[in-house]
């Protein structure tokens, strides 16, 4: 597969000392002009856009049936755990059998499971939980697949992963907005079905692209550890657990802060400010050539993010909290982009998709732990204690990243990416 040339720092000799720096935005345009990746990028956007819509719609759907937040939480837990537990298994099958079969299978089963959930009677608790678990377990592995394609680019990976970081923020903002629009015209059941159909259409469309059909994993070992046989990846995941705990604390403490300082309805706008900051940060980072190695940039980025994460401690109302989060969001996307680069580097040969999926699983587990921690701290000491805990978790992650930064390497025998 032929890809357009890029001015990536590690692949383009024009970035050596004395050369001209490419104009801002040029690196993004180079990636977007890659004809082989246009269709996968389009379909991956369609398929991933409703991810947050479905998560929120599950809660709204359950409570609209009068089952209460306890039952809604159980339904969401089954959906989330289904994805967290089985996503690496599905991704490993992708690395073995190719992207097309698994994308087609999950692209059909996932929406059917959500439709089954909607059609299940309100008092049929077990069938509902089964449908939610199946829907979570069969979320199409689009993120891992498209990032595997990006990591296979001969050049331009840095800008491609920056674009991925920007899109992640777009999905965080766009999914809830789409849910609001659907609820305005329809109902929660419609939102769930629409989310499942969009994910399925995106997965099937992605599977039919030439880039996806031609993608082949390199020969891989059949050991049980899979991607986790890479010490570098395991070290990276340990750092990401700390970051995920911090994010989980924020997921809990921000609604509590919003309610204390006005109305809980403002929390959507607060999270939106966070995402907007991330979009600007990702665009800024992706339009520039990085001067430091990825592992050093990652460790320093986490340290800077820790400092910005402390800004909410200075907020006195919901508006100032929005500003604090927008500033912190500017740092999140660049750190995320470098994280993707390190995942691609440390992934064992033939297990790239699984490696990216383990990042999602670690995030789910870490945010769940962080949410529980945040709840305990808010209840016992107030929101300030939870914000301090979020900063502390990131500082631990930054310390670990600095300590092991020279060991973010691929396993022995893995070709240089």
Automatic annotation (TrEMBL):
Gene3D superfamilies, alphabetized: MFS general substrate transporter like domains
Database matches in SUPFAM superfamilies: MFS general substrate transporter
Q: Where is the composition biased (Basic and acidic residues)?
A: 1-12
Residues passing through the membrane, by range: 41-62, 68-90, 102-120, 126-149, 191-212, 233-254, 266-285, 297-316, 322-343, 355-378, 384-404
This protein's UniProt keywords: Membrane, Transmembrane, Transmembrane helix
Please give the InterPro entries that the UniProt record associates with this protein: MFS, MFS_dom, MFS_trans_sf
Indicate the segments forming the Major facilitator superfamily (MFS) profile domain, all copies: 232-417
Q: Which PANTHER family match?
A: MAJOR FACILITATOR SUPERFAMILY (MFS) PROFILE DOMAIN-CONTAINING PROTEIN, PTHR23542
Q: What is this protein called?
A: MFS transporter
């Amino acid at each position: 597969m032929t890809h357009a040339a890029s001015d990536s720092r590690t692949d383009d000799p024009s970035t050596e000392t004395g050369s001209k720096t490419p104009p801002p935005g040029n690196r993004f345009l180079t990636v977007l002009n890659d004809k082989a990746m246009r269709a996968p990028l389009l379909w991956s956007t369609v398929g991933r856009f409703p991810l947050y819509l479905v998560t929120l719609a599950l809660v709204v759907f359950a409570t609209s049936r009068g089952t209460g937040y306890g039952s809604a939480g159980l339904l969401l837990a089954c959906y989330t755990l289904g994805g967290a537990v089985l996503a690496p298994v599905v991704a490993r099958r992708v690395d073995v059998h190719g992207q097309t079969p698994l994308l087609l299978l999950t692209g059909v089963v996932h929406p059917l499971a959500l439709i089954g959930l909607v059609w299940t009677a309100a008092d049929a608790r077990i069938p509902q939980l089964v449908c939610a678990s199946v829907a979570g377990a069969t979320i199409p592995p689009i993120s891992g697949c498209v990032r595997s394609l990006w990591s296979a680019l001969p050049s331009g990976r840095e800008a491609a992963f920056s674009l991925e970081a920007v899109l992640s923020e777009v999905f965080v903002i766009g999914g809830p907005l789409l849910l609001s629009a659907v609820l305005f015209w329809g109902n929660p059941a419609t939102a769930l079905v629409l989310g499942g159909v969009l994910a399925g259409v995106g997965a099937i469309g992605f599977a039919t692209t030439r880039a996806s059909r031609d993608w082949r994993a390199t020969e891989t070992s059949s050991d049980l550890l899979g991607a986790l046989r890479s010490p570098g990846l395991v070290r990276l995941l340990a750092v990401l657990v700390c970051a995920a705990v911090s994010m989980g604390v924020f997921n809990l403490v921000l609604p509590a802060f919003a309610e204390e300082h006005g109305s809980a309805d403002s929390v959507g706008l607060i999270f939106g400010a966070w995402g907007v900051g991330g979009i600007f940060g990702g665009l800024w980072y992706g339009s520039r050539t990085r001067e430091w190695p990825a592992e050093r940039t990652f460790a320093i980025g986490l340290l800077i993010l820790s400092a910005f994460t402390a800004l909410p401690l200075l907020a006195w109302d919901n508006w100032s909290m929005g500003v604090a989060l927008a500033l912190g969001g500017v740092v999140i996307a660049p750190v995320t982009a470098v994280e993707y680069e390190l995942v691609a580097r440390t992934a064992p040969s033939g297990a790239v998709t699984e490696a990216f999926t383990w990042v999602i699983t670690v995030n789910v587990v870490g945010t769940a732990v962080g949410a529980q921690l945040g709840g305990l701290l808010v209840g016992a000491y107030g929101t300030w204690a939870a914000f301090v805990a979020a900063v502390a978790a990131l500082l631990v992650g930054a310390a670990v990243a600095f300590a092991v930064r020279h060991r973010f390497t691929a396993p022995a025998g893995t070709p240089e990416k």
